[in-house]
Amino acid sequence: MEQNEIALEAQVSRKVMGARLAIGLLQGLLLYWLYASARDVAWPATAPYAMVPLTTLMLILPVLLISSLGHLKPRQVAVWLLAALAVLLVFSLHDVWRGLNDQPLLSNWEHKQIYSPSVLVVVFSAVFFFIAHTLVLAGAQEGRRIAGYNAYFETAWKLAIQLLFSAFFVGALFFVLLMGSQLFLLVKLKFLQELLRESWFNVPVICTAFSCAMHVTDVRPSIVRGIRTLLLVLMSWILPVAVVLVTGFVCSLPFTGLTALWETRHATSVLLGAAALLLVLINAAFQNGEAIVALPLRVSARTAAILILPVTLIGVYALGLRVAQYGWTTDRVIAAACLLVATFYAAGYLWASSQYDTWLKPVSTVNVWASFLVLAVLAALFTPLADPARIGVNSQMARLEKGKTKAADFDFRYLRFEGGRYGLAALEELKKRSAGPDAAVLSREAAAMLALDDSDRWKQSRRATAPVSVADNLTVWPAGAQLPASFLTQKWETMQDNLKPDCLSKREGKCDAFVIDADGDGKPEVLLIEKLHAGGGQVFAEGSDGAWTVVANMAYRDMSCKPLVDKLRKGEFTLVTPRFKELDIGGRRVELTATFQHDAAACDNIK
User: Fold this and answer.
1) What is the DSSP letter of 42?
2) Which stretches of the chain drop beneath a pLDDT of 70?
3) Which pick of 183, 336, 356, 392 has the fewest CB atoms within 10 Å?
4) What is the pLDDT of residue 160?
5) Same domain, 268 and 298
6) Are residues 480 and 349 in the same domain?
7) Which one of 341, 358, 386 terminates a domain?
8) Within this chain, do residues 489 and 414 fall inside the same structural domain, yes or no?
């Protein structure tokens, strides 16, 4: 084994080291050119059908080439890269066509657009080609289309560790360069610090260093194998902990019910994360199916293989509830795709756990076929076959047509800024509508959305749709009190979400509203405390211009104290003068806050 590795090192180093470094340097130069064109608002950054494919190709294709050299024959490299090129072009061109990747930029007082691949396309393309490249390398290694599971296992973990340590190497290199710049600054030499600020230096260095690290880790397979073994052993001993926690969660559901789970509004993503964690840890213990595994890990792995199914089914139910209530959106379509893959894994691993005489041996078969399923799902999501934007827009329009969503509740902003070309087409249709009871409202709102410039996309994406009526989301205290009319009629959608509670911007948000005269000026203020999420209270006051804004806050430690909130609801409180006065320093008022020592019993002892 050791002699073979020495031969591999000599052969690979002699034939491909220079080529890999050259590819990395060329990749860096081309990426810098693309970055410079975006910075200067020049071609190709202003041409979407050039910029998006070029950027996508430059991020992924050189890495595939670097990894292929020395492991595939020249003809195989050419065929594989051409196939990868075709897939990347389809993904990136469709990304442009759907119209969701332009970025507004003001340059020379003229509104211009620069273009880049959407984050989803880049991330999922990387996942797609990590899996595909593993299948290709393993198949070439064994000389057959479907390789043995051991070949897939070795190749996948080697690639994962190569990528991880290559990224670490780049980070370590720049840490050293940064330290060197600080050393030179001690003697008043700024050249290295100024060099590290230049993108023309940083981008090529990053890519060249990454390719160098990929080569070094490639020619030392024994080191990579040792790191992999250590990593998997450590991860496998986390499996019993994960099993205990997930088992406890599943067993608690009959007693707690699912209501609290749905109120989080992110139950599906958490459940998917739990299922993914169990999958990774099971495979860390299983490895290639030939590792010697301790009995506690075998029991834990078999139990985890059973647990994946209920966790996944709860996630499916959670997503189903959201879709039934609000219809499909881009995020929910992607979540559904992930749940489809998770369900395949869950069913396969449940089957594997029932084979008591093979130590989860069927897991290897499930993993291989699941890889092909993931490739198929990703290919569908990022082509017109199952475009999440198209499905989301069609779903929202269908709900509107069937009366499940009222015109006043309809999210026109989703169509405009998240629906791409499909959303724009739907808005044009609504704009022309002249028949029906809500035709005037739909036409007016659609026209207003179409009139917005693309430069408003990012500002609008930080806002949520306003509820039908703020009053519907508020429970007013003390009982019988009335909220100021100007508070209820204010257009809260114009305020950024991070400055207000959900009850002012989302239909599912709920708050307690306390009408108090907090500053003693004779005019009421409104204290809002969210019901669904423990958080700080916010005091809103009406300004001289008639607009309500946040003027004070209550601490999280107080709002998380249930007895305190209950007393507040009953009106059992008084307004008192602060213990410490404020300091006036140069016209600026500085508040002195009393020291608070947290005592777990302090909340329960409130009289």
Assistant:
1) -
2) 1-14, 102-112, 262-264, 454-469, 497-498, 506-508, 532-536, 594-602, 604-607
3) 356
4) 95
5) yes
6) no
7) 386
8) no
Rounded Cα gap, residues 209 and 173, in angstroms: 8
- Say how many CA atoms lie within 13 Å of 115 toward its Cβ: 23
Place of tokens 């609801």: 569
pLDDT at 296: 92
From 350, 368, 386, the end of a domain falls on 386
Task: Answer yes or no: do 306 and 359 share one domain.
Answer: yes
β-bridge partners, 69: 72
**DSSP string of 306-332, one letter each residue:** HHHHHHHHHHHHHHHHHHHHH---HHH
Question: How much is the pLDDT for 545?
Answer: 84
The backbone torsions φ and ψ at residue 31, rounded to the nearest 5 degrees and listed phi first, read: -65, -35
Burial of 251 (C-beta count, 10 Å sphere; 0-12/13-18/19+): exposed
472: three-class secondary structure by DSSP: helix
Assign 211 to helix, strand or coil: helix
Separation of alpha carbons 209 and 174, rounded Å: 10
Cα(441)–Cα(464) distance, integer angstroms: 19
Q: Which residue has the tokens 């489809």?
A: 340
Euclidean distance between CA atoms 201 and 195, whole angstroms: 7
CB 441 within 8 A of CB 408: yes
Q: Which conformational region is residue 586 in: left (phi greater than 0), alpha (psi within -120 to 50 degrees), or beta?
A: left
Look at residue 109 in the predicted model and tell me its pLDDT: 35
Core vs surface per residue 574-598: b (16+ CB within 10 A) or e: eeeeeeeeeeeeeeeeeeeeeeeee
Q: What residues does 443 pair with on adjacent strands?
A: none
Helices 48-68 + 2-39 axis angle, to 10: 170
Check whether residue 312 and residue 345 sit in a common domain: yes
Q: Are residues 202 and 343 in the same domain?
A: no
Q: Are residues 363 and 397 in the same domain?
A: no
| Closest CA relative to residue 449, chosen from 460, 438, 458 | 460
- Asked if residue 220 and residue 272 are part of one domain, the reply reads no
Q: Indicate the pTM of the whole model.
A: 0.77
Extract the tokens encoding 179.
């330290």
Q: Do residues 99 and 417 lie in contact, with contact meaning Cβ atoms separated by under 8 Å?
A: no
CA distances from 497 to 459, 504, 525 (A): 11, 9, 20
- Check: CB of residue 486 under 8 Å from CB of residue 464: no
Domain count, the chain: 4
With DSSP H G I counted as helix, E B as strand and the rest as coil, what are the percentages for the chain, rounded to 5? Answer: 65, 10, 25
Task: Return the structure tokens found at 403.
Answer: 């009366």
Output the six-digit token pair for 607.
Answer: 């009289």
**In this structure, what is the dihedral angle of CA atoms 391, 396, 398, 401, given to the nearest 10 degrees?**
-160
Q: Which domain holds residue 424?
A: 388-461
Q: Give per-residue pLDDT as tens, 231-240.
A: 999 999 999 9
How far is C-alpha 269 from the geometric centre of its chain's CA atoms? 10
Place of tokens 């708050």: 511
- CA separation for the pair 316, 310 (Å, rounded): 10
Q: How many Å apart are CA 209 and CA 483, to the nearest integer?
A: 62
Model pLDDT, residue 446: 92
Give 258's DSSP letter: S
Please choose, from the candidates 91, 102, 140, the residue with its C-alpha nearest in 3D space to the C-alpha of residue 417: 102
Q: Which amino acid is at 297?
A: L
The H-assigned helical ranges of 327-411 are: 330-353, 362-381, 388-402
Q: Are 258 and 267 in contact (CB under 8 A)?
A: no
pLDDT score at 1: 45
